[in-house]
Amino acid sequence: MTTYDAVLLSSFGGPEGQDDVIPFLRNVTAGRGVPDERLEEVAHHYRHFGGVSPINSQNRALKAALEAELSKRGIDLPVYWGNRNWAPYFKDVVAEAAANGHTRLLGLVTSAYTSYSGVGQYREDFEKALLDNGLTDTASIDRIREYFDHPGFVMPLVEGVKSGVKTLTDAGYGSSDIRILFSTHSIPTAAAKASGPEFGEHGAYEAQHLAVAEKIRELAAPGVAWSLVYQSRSGDPRVPWLEPDINDFITGLADRGEAKAVVVVPFGFVSDHMEVLWDLDNEAKATAEEAGLGFVRVPTPGVHPAFVAGLVDLIEERLNDTPAEERPHLTDLGPWPDHETVGTYRDPAQPGSAPAAPTAPTPPSETVEATA
User: Fold this and answer.
1) 3-state DSSP: the chain helix, strand, coil percent, rounded to 5?
2) Residues 33, 138 within the same domain
3) Contacts (Cβ under 8 Å, ≥6 apart) of 100
4) Which of 47, 182, 335, 368 has its CA 20 to 30 A from that of 162?
5) CATH code, 157
6) SS3 label, residue 61
7) Is the Cα torsion angle 112, 113, 114, 120 positive or negative in sign?
8) How many whole angstroms separate alpha carbon 85 and alpha carbon 12?
9) CB atoms near residue 200 (< 10 Å)
């Protein structure tokens, strides 16, 4: 068994009020020279909701749910919550954990897929948090594997798709009238390829989404057509990003007479944060209405009991050093491997003890900023 003394719930972060919006967006785009005027074009998404991102309250709820599930199972691990772009920042949370004697942390990242933003950048965040606190040689951070095809992540989406299709069929649409649109965050095509070129032109990022979409459709609505679409692209318009955009695709479906209604599945996200509430519930829904298509949006896993239980299963998987062949997965791509340890933990009771052994190598990840 592997010993950890705390869980580090790791996320993107978001503003907590109108005065936070531009400083938050400056953090997100740091190093890219994006002027405040450009940031204001994105800021109106947050200002529409009073400058408050829902991601923070969602992470507080997830933290509480994880604590309850860990306690229920008799697992004595405190849960800390840290963010990349807004308070509580990783640097401060890692310092707090160390001050409490917790120096062997297990990171639980709120990103289910392989990408630079979901893998490589979090590793950099963890490295910097240890370095800034002078803990590189005395603390370590591992992280649970990508869980894109873990039953705990997939089954709440299956439940949602079943419900969404039923809502439309109850409204009079036939199964041939419906198209399931599996939506995820677009990233630069070069970044997608770098996430694992051995998986195809658009790397592991696209391959994972395609595999999960097919599994969800198979389990929830085997007679209904589906498509993978992308949302929330940003950055230089001259840079190629993954397509098709969900709004363009919805318009095209209507123009070609290929569907009369859509079930939108935001399976690239774990909670109903800004890119779901604005980009889907606002923009994509409006596009569908303008095109005369019925529209249903499926909930993200959020704090669904199966998702929370699945995350704790993943924590136990690391605590118990569960062999790969015994790790649950619903596609042929899984189970995704573990990652190398960040930092070097040495047991204070055994001075001079050997560093913790690294786990399997991190899968390739892109080297381009993926989101804005």
Assistant:
1) 45, 15, 40
2) yes
3) 6, 78
4) 335
5) 3.40.50.1400
6) helix
7) negative
8) 6
9) 14
Same domain, 308 and 232: no
Backbone angles phi, psi at 63, to 5 degrees: -60, -45
b/e map of 330-349 (b: 16 or more CB within 10 Å)? bbebbbbebbebbbebbeee
Domain that holds residue 231: 151-297
Has residue 243 been placed in a domain? Answer: yes
Q: What is the tens place of the pLDDT at every residue in 67-100?
A: 999 999 999 999 999 999 999 999 999 999 999 9
pLDDT for the residue 55: 97
The pair of structure tokens assigned to 152 is: 């705990």
Cα torsion 100, 106, 109, 313: sign: negative
Q: What is the overall mean pLDDT for the chain?
A: 92
**Count of domains in the chain?**
2
Give the other-Cβ count within 10 Å of 18's Cβ.
Answer: 13
> What is the per-residue pLDDT for 356?
40
- Nearest-angstrom CA–CA distance, 368 and 5: 33
**Together in a domain, 114 and 157:** no
Q: With a cut of 70, which residues of the chain have pLDDT below it? A: 346-372
Q: How far apart are CA 109 and CA 123, in angstroms?
A: 10
